[in-house]
Amino acid sequence: MTCFAVLILSMKKWFSEWRLMPLFLRLLRTKSIGSAIGVLEKASPLAGPAKVGVDAGTAATKAFLPAETVEYSQLLSSFISALNALSDELIKDDRLLTILFDDVQWSSEPDFRLLKDLIRNLPPGIALITTFRLEAGSMKMYAKLRRELDRFGYTEIRLGGMAPGEIRDFAHLRYGLSVDDQAAEFLNKTIGDPFCLVSCFNLLQRRNQSPSIASIQNILPEAVEPVRSIYSELDQLWKDRLNSLCILRPPMSLSLIACMLEECNMVSLQDELDQSVVFRRLGREEYDFAHPSLREYRRKELPERVTVELHSQAARCFKTLRDIDFLSDSVVSNKS
User: Fold this and answer.
1) Which stretches does DSSP call E strand in the chain?
2) Which of 48, 163, 285, 312 is deepest in the core (most CB within 10 A)?
3) Which of 219, 223, 230, 261 is nearest to 243 (CA)?
């Protein structure tokens, strides 16, 4: 199957021109798939600056249509009709159309409603890809989107931290900074996610400092500041869990997490961890923090007494788990 087109449709820009879709439908019915795709491409930032694309789409629309506002039901019907017609043509030619909705967390309520309705009505041969960044005020929207994705069997891919080699390339290509292996490894363990790495390198550049471990340690509290907004949006249960686990180094076993949180129902805990925005699963019973910077931020913020108590609790958990493993091995040996 060959890729037919990849259209980058910015929700906050493109959906503001709702009158564009009827024009797309008219072209679809009277001219060709290529002409219809051309309209979409003109409205895409791939064609140039976003404003230029939107202006081109607006000008074309005015030539064909009256200026009245389109009702939501008509808009949705137009989108679904267009996608169904495209789907029929794509399937005939064994092709695929991929549509990327970027920065969904910034979409308005009508835009977000439209996206959810499209997810529910997506025809064969067309794939939707959405990007969503967790930030202040977006947690509830993310929860709603996750429900739709789970309900209709879509896949969520959580982007983890950048590897040391990727961090070196990022620093060199975007900032002209030369990061050595040790500094890259340190950044991978303490920050990792691109959002906070941007903050880190901006601070280094602003202060005219080299990306050494000493310089990075000096700016680390400010570099991880963006995750404060994510933490503030968590409910108290997940704040408490994050604070209890931030002293651990990943990967963390499910058994260790359950012991630290004093949770008896490991099946329920695993389900909750899988749904959480704080952690990501690495293996069957292994977890990591979704963003290393989130762990680093909370580890630095904990009162010293709490940190000592958590380390003591972790030591007890490690001993308990070692004892359980020893007993399990003994039982297996006796049975054999």
Assistant:
1) 2-10, 95-102, 126-130, 252-253, 279-281, 286-289
2) 285
3) 261
pLDDT at 336: 40
CA distance 307 to 8: 46
User: Angle 292-301/236-245 helices, nearest 10 degrees?
Assistant: 80
> 220, 212 in Cβ contact below 8 A?
no
User: Cα dihedral sign for 4, 7, 45, 68?
Assistant: positive
Domain ranges of the chain: 2-151, 164-225, 236-321
CA 189 – CA 160 distance, rounded (Å) = 12
CB atoms within 10 A of CB 237: 11
Q: Is the pTM of this model over 0.85?
A: no
Q: Which of 102-106, 220-224, 249-253, 331-335 comes out lowest in average pLDDT?
A: 331-335
CA dihedral (318, 321, 323, 327) in degrees, to 10, reads -160
Tokens for 98, please give them: 């991929």
